[in-house]
């Protein structure tokens, strides 16, 4: 038998009785007792909570209700799950209470040394994201269930920043957390096309007595990104954008989600992008304002003019506010 087979056999023997000695394990598996000790140490290192009792009635046993634990994770796997849970909680994951219970159960079924290491890794990582309020968490739970069960939902949705709402039926295909906001993507019965809706703008939600079939290979993530990233499938319609500046500022610019996909060429002090005109007119000027004087637009003239107009508008707005 291989090492893995022997270790699994030891685990099953431990699960099948309250206490068993190393000698008994060696006899049952027909291996050397020193080999038993090595396999016990390896099982403990992988996260199995094995207790060793000395004395006349001593032996090896499993901690508590380990028989109820279906999986065994090593330390790196446990650390990864704990860290992933921290990100999910901060992002407003809709089943946070159950996630906390799962983390608590994970800690319960580990040995003392690994629990100490897990706590150290947990204390060493913090995630700061905007917290979802209780009402949004409740909506997220309902929408997630509708997505999983392919059930149409009926909602009253607030358009923009006004107070007007529209009643819509939606076949929810998926949930996406994008830039700290949650979106549901699906087929809108009113518009008769696939649309995305912000969860925090849903004012009322009900399950309709109707199911749907989700399109094969549909990706809510790709749908969201297709609406915000430059379209690389139309190279003839893209405009060249060249920006110079400080190396650190260019590093940040080129690594940002909005421009990383449009990067054509990069030197130490210059970055060359290709973008659609609509991004140059409406999005990029405001984005570049956050870099202040660390960057300079080399081309096109269209973007330079837009930056001038945007800054003029801001100046006039605040100048008028001072007069009031």
From TrEMBL:
It comes from the Bacteria. It holds the Pfam family HTH_11. This is WYL domain-containing protein. Residues 8-60 form the Helix-turn-helix type domain. InterPro entries: CBASS_pafABC_assoc_protein, HTH_11, WH-like_DNA-bd_sf, WH_DNA-bd_sf, WYL_dom. Residues 139-206 form the WYL domain.
């Amino acid at each position: 038998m291989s090492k893995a087979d022997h270790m699994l056999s030891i685990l099953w023997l431990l699960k099948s009785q309250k206490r068993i000695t190393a000698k008994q394990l060696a006899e049952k598996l027909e291996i050397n007792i020193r080999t038993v000790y090595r396999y016990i140490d390896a099982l403990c290192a992988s996260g199995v909570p094995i207790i060793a009792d000395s004395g006349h009635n001593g032996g090896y046993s499993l901690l508590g209700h380990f028989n109820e634990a279906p999986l065994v994770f090593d330390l790196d796997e446990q650390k990864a799950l704990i860290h992933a849970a921290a990100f999910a909680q901060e992002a407003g994951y809709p089943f946070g209470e159950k996630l906390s219970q799962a983390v608590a159960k994970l800690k319960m079924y580990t040995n003392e040394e690994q629990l100490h290491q897990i706590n150290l890794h947990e204390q060493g990582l913090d995630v700061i994201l905007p917290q979802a309020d209780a009402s949004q968490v409740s909506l997220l739970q309902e929408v997630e269930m509708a997505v999983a069960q392919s059930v149409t939902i009926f909602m009253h949705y607030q358009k923009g920043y006004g107070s007007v709402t529209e009643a819509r039926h939606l076949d929810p295909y998926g949930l996406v957390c994008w830039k700290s906001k949650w979106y549901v993507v699906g087929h809108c019965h009113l518009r008769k096309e696939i649309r995305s809706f912000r969860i925090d703008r849903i004012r009322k939600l009900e399950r309709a007595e109707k199911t749907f079939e989700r399109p094969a290979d549909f990706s809510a993530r790709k749908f969201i990104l297709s609406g915000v990233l430059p379209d690389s499938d139309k190279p003839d319609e893209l405009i060249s954008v060249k920006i110079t500046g400080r190396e650190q500022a260019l590093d940040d610019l080129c690594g940002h989600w909005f421009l990383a996909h449009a990067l054509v060429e990069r030197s130490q002090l210059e970055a060359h992008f290709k973008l659609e005109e609509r991004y140059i007119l409406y999005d990029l000027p405001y984005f570049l304002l956050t870099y202040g004087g660390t960057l300079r637009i080399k081309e096109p003239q269209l973007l330079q003019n837009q930056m001038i107009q945007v800054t003029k508008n801001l100046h006039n707005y605040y100048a008028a506010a001072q007069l009031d």
